[in-house]
Amino acid sequence: MLDPVVLAAQGAGELQSGLTAIGRGIVYGGAAIGPGIGIGLVVGNAITAMARQPESAGTVRTTMFLGIAFTEALALFGFVLAFIISG
Amino acid sequence: MILGIDFPPITHVTRWPDIWFADTPFAINKTVLIFIASVVITLAFFFVAGRRHQLVPTGVQGLAESSIDFVRDSIILQTIGPEGMGYLPFLITMFFFVFFINIFEILPFIQFPGNARIAVPLFLALVVWFIFNIVGIANQGFFKYIKNSVVPPGVPAAILPLMVFIEFISTFIVRPFSLAIRLFANMLAGHLILVTFAILTAAIWGSAVYFKIGAAFPFALLIALTAFEILVSALQAFIFTILTGVYIGLSMHPEH
What we know:
The structure holds two protein chains of two kinds.
Chain A: H1 4-10, H2 12-52, H3 57-84
Chain B: H1 10-14, H2 30-51, H3 59-79, H4 88-103, H5 119-140, H6 142-150, H7 160-205, H8 216-252
């Protein structure tokens, strides 16, 4: 019963929408890996900097948000692409 | 039917029926009303704040003055420098305009961030694109500006063509695109998360009577996420404004 050809004959639309859903999941999941690591690095180093030099916390925080914004953009491209993929 | 909840297609939570002028290019729906309301609120906010100058600011005037201080100290001085003070009206208006559109996400009975449709983010990004290019050309001259934008300093001649190509794409195409996508996708994601937990709560509440207690968990998370979305609304407005400042600053003072 799990033969793809049989499944396709039973309901091509269902198979297609299922595969589309899987594809969307892979696209967003893959796009989130790198930015996830990247944002972790950015924030972690910002916290280190703030702990070492609390008087520079304001500047570091602004720069941290900038770094987050640039890194996060890649994940958001994946998020938008996941919706653009249509079955 | 707890495990098999039907999530509505994305168009159901972002596309609203036309209210007036249906089927014309000037059709007005909920999103357009949010945009118009944001323009009016931004205008009214600064009009009320500047109507009667008081030596010791109170109420709206105090809020407006502290927000001007905030934009000046943490956006303009950090990214452009003292010579960027002329951009203060533009940046502060943009901050409040974006923020007011975003904050409709958590207002009861409206609960839709206008920026979850890409129209306004894309248009604002286009405005920013024109501004930073014009500022760069006006400050450095056309050819010097293009050269400073696409030729990174200290690159070996062998890979220079590749670097010029990459820098051109990243400066003139990816910059405005990512500016628009960042705002749009953040607000859309926040809206979808709130919709998800609202649907979950409603579905569990509508189930058999002994399951109703389970609705408390998604409902508590819904409230917590609503508070989180207030933070996101302000943060995205801030990031949009500060990135505009960064781009204008880069056009004014090229890296050496």
